[in-house]
Design a protein that fits this description.
The protein is mainly β and 131 residues long. It has one domain: SO1590-like (AOC barrel-like, Beta Barrel). 0% of the residues lie in helices and 76% in strands. The protein is elongated and about 50 Å long.
Length: 131
């Protein structure tokens, strides 16, 4: 199954973490509001670092989503793994297995994010398996 829609996002800086030797990891919180087949809110906590090479870096994040997916109410966790390789981005955004609750129990899937003209869009390919 597939759900597509738009989401709003609010970024809230949480400071940085000193990893030693001049390396800093940025900590960011994002509050999201999803619209469309996924009517939900989420909170994301992200850690990000940039390489000394311009255009290279990475981020990891965990996101808790609460709401409805195609009319099914519940919540789930998603895990982000983003890489920026000399300006070329890639993102792996996956539902954490066995974190779906209530009518979303058994949820599995991957989410793609597109940003067009400053607007955020999601494409959620998912399945609801056995609990």
């Amino acid at each position: 199954m597939q759900a597509k829609g738009e989401f709003d996002v609010k970024r809230i800086p949480q400071g940085s973490l000193d990893m030693g030797d001049g390396v800093e990891i940025g900590h960011m919180r994002f509050d999201k509001q999803f619209h469309g087949p996924l009517e939900a809110t989420s909170v994301v906590h992200m850690l990000a670092a940039m390489s000394p090479v311009e255009g290279s870096g990475a981020y990891v994040a965990l996101e808790r989503v609460v709401g409805t997916l195609d009319g099914r109410a519940g919540s789930f966790l998603a895990q982000h793994n983003g890489i920026l390789d000399r300006g070329t981005p890639s993102l792996n955004l996956t539902v954490v297995p066995d974190t779906g609750t209530d009518a979303l129990t058994g949820l599995r899937g991957r989410i793609a994010i597109d940003i067009v003209d400053g607007k955020h869009f999601y494409t959620f390919d998912y399945e609801l398996g056995d609990a």
